[in-house]
Amino acid sequence: MAFEISLTGKTAVITGSNSGIGLGMAWELARAGADVVLNSFTDNDDDHALAKQIADETGTNARYIQGDMSKGDQCRALIEKAGACDILINNAGIQHVAAIPDFATEKWDAIIAINLSSAFHTTAAALPMMRAAGWGRVINVSSAHGLTASPYKSAYIAAKHGIIGLTKTTALETAQEPITANAICPGYVLTPIVEKQIPDTMKEYDMSREDVIQNVMLKRQPSKEFATTEQLGGTAVFLCSASADQITGTTISVDGGWTAL
Questions:
Q1: Which of 13, 111, 127, 135 could disulfide-link to 37, CB 3.0 to 4.6 Å?
Q2: What is 170-191 written as a DSSP string?
Q3: Residue 119 shares a structural domain with residue 221
Q4: Same domain, yes or no: 204 and 245
């Protein structure tokens, strides 16, 4: 028997959701019946068309609201403009790779702002709405790099570790309420951004596509398979179900065994 979850009547706000993991989560939440608010820093016809497509195909209310997640006031404004936020998914993120002595200060500041501080601001704005509604879910997208580390990714790893700490604190502050807070920690996920990296990596290492995937990208992922955005969306939907009422303050790894090493 299929395990069915209905989120009808709930509103989900997903930051950084006009592509990749965030968009995949929006689709799965909408398929489960939730109204969804998409977000990114852009504001063009394609962004709004994505929301319309979700609405048309799932019969839910889907909207796109522009907001720059590097700015605290815009993070809070996103939640206010949404009007309701039963499910908050903090997914917005950027990456930059450099050794610590060469890591540009502006890159550090931007990554910390978008990958970590934005989640603080949206959570601060959303929790009063969840308390008023008598139910809520905070889901923070961390990473396998929130539990482990690699060289040359200091800001990203600091932010992803930090988001897990914020998740735990949020869970403790809401532990006696019908609100939970958890972090999902993906490994490598086959998103459009990752797909675009494959040809360049093939040239860099003079490897075939399959060798690049297996021996470079998935080197630390024991399953040797990418996670999918649908799987991550399904994990988010599960965390919104009644079965997950007592799951709070923890991490769920979707990493093909990466953090088991």
A1: 13
A2: HHHHTTTTTEEEEEEEE--B--
A3: no
A4: no
- Model pTM? 0.96
Catalytic residue, candidates 64, 156, 188, 205: 156
- Do 76 and 160 share a domain, yes or no? yes
- 64 among known catalytic residues: no
Indicate the length of the chain as a whole number: 261
CA distance 67 to 16: 9
- The reply to whether 3 falls in a domain is no
- Decide if 138 is inside a domain: yes
Tell me if 135 is assigned to some domain.
yes
Report the distance separating Cα 85 and Cα 59, nearest Å. 19
Task: Tell me: do 149 and 216 sit in the same domain.
Answer: no
- pLDDT tens digit sequence for 17-70: 999 999 999 999 999 999 999 999 999 999 999 999 999 999 999 999 999 999
Domain of 109? 11-189+227-256
Report whether 260 contacts 254 (CB < 8 A). no
CA dihedral sign of residues 147, 103, 66, 192: negative
